[in-house]
Design brief:
single chain; mainly beta; eight-stranded antiparallel beta sheet; five-stranded antiparallel beta sheet
């Protein structure tokens, strides 16, 4: 995945219910989303992600994922799910101290309406235990449609803080 990054969109959350980053076009086959210092306003929340279709969240039950949790305080574990209404990207996030969610998410073929949109994630989180957890894995939206953006939110409450940047990856 070598190539120059071209900034497409960015956002900053401050007690926000959702952060939507649109702007995906056929100009790029691969996009990179960086998430920095994301934190919920309630302890124990999880970070969620959906794709946007025509600027609106796709809340269908077509989200599948497989994630490896690399844990500092317990054995590594595997998480997966299929036919969900969103991607789960963290576990039990802390709302105090350094308990933030940070991630690099690569999104593949979002605007190709004859293919499923997929992603790869590498993240780090300090949960409410506190325990350092890294998510490594990916997911797929099993609907052949044009996906023009991404939506980030918490499973309950708001995003207290966070910086989000969407890049196109030039060939």
């Amino acid at each position: 995945m070598s190539g120059a990054l071209v900034k497409i969109n960015e956002g900053t959350a401050s007690n926000s219910s959702v952060v939507n980053l649109d702007g995906m076009t056929t100009d790029f086959d691969v996009y990179k989303l960086t998430v920095t210092n994301m934190k919920g306003n309630t302890s124990g929340e999880d970070v969620k992600m959906r794709f946007l279709a025509s600027g609106s969240q796709d809340s269908s039950s077509n989200y599948d994922r497989s994630i490896r949790l690399l844990r500092s305080g317990a054995a590594f574990t595997q998480q997966g799910g299929y036919n969900s209404t969103q991607f789960d990207l963290s576990t039990n996030l802390s709302d105090t101290g350094n308990g933030t969610f940070n991630a690099d998410i690569y999104i593949f073929s979002p605007m190709n309406s004859s293919q499923f949109t997929s992603f790869l994630i590498q993240s780090s989180t300090l949960n409410s235990t506190p325990e350092l957890i890294s998510f490594v894995g990916g997911g797929i939206l099993t609907v052949a449609q044009a996906t023009d953006g991404v939506s980030m939110f918490m499973d309950a409450g708001n995003i207290a803080q966070g910086d989000f940047v969407l890049y196109g990856l030039a060939r």
